[in-house]
Amino acid sequence: MALKTYPIYEAIRTGAEVPDDDDNVPADAVDKDAEAQATAAARRSAWENRRNTRPRGQLEPNMQGCLLLQALVALPTGNVPVLESLFAQPTDTLLAYAKSPIASHLLDKVLTSPAVPPKYRRKLYLGFVGRYAELADDRLGSRVADTVWDTADGYMREKIARSLIPDATTLANSQFGRFLSRRLDLHLLQRRPDEWRAAQIGVKHHFAHQKNRHPTPRPTTRPRARPRSASGARSARRRTRSTSCLRLPRRARRRRASGNRGV
Predict the structure, then answer these.
(1) pLDDT digits (tens, 9 = 90+) for 104-160
(2) Which positions ≥6 away from 236 have C-beta within 8 Å?
(3) Which residues span the domain enclosing 109?
(4) 20/149 same-domain check
(5) Which of 41, 95, 170, 243 suits 182 as a labelling partner, its CA being 20 to 30 A distant?
């Protein structure tokens, strides 16, 4: 019977005529009508709230537009206008796209699609230089940073890693940036760049194969040249005798000299 008062309440609130309380009408019918009106009003208010949640005039990423742009980017021909429009945006806008749960998929498609010319990927690599620390510190931006690292060549990898060296400590202490910091191994790049290139890029130094070899000992004395004639051989023997005599002590030299005279 409590729901019979709902039509009266609605009439008072809207200013309509108050319906007569007819006792001949069954209470169940009145209750059903009241429940139907309340359900319809609840549905209408929920729909209106859902329509007004997003204010009009703001160009925010949406799922349908992102899927359409991904399909256009993947086209072998005809994707240049979309790419030119995308990279005409400032770096702050691209950074906001990388942090968006919807628009970040478009950047992933640009980085991984074989239909995208390499010069556009290079624009994206260079556009984030100096902002990679901010990109890696975000929950979704760190995923884009991983995709950038996976698709970049050796030169761009070293350029990106060197741009992150001043922020190495900040990345190591970050909740999301620490994963990229471990992957890049920035401290190894600071201490031993050759080993970092061999581990991250696969480029070895020109003389890396000689670092573990033992150096060949240099001869301490020069080898004696062979005499070219008999006179040269006699003079060489004389020089040897004179030098050997000079090396002997004085008493030994006297004994040797006296022995030669006796003979």
Answers:
(1) 999 999 999 999 999 999 999 999 999 999 999 999 999 999 999 999 998 999 999
(2) 224, 227
(3) 66-206
(4) no
(5) 95
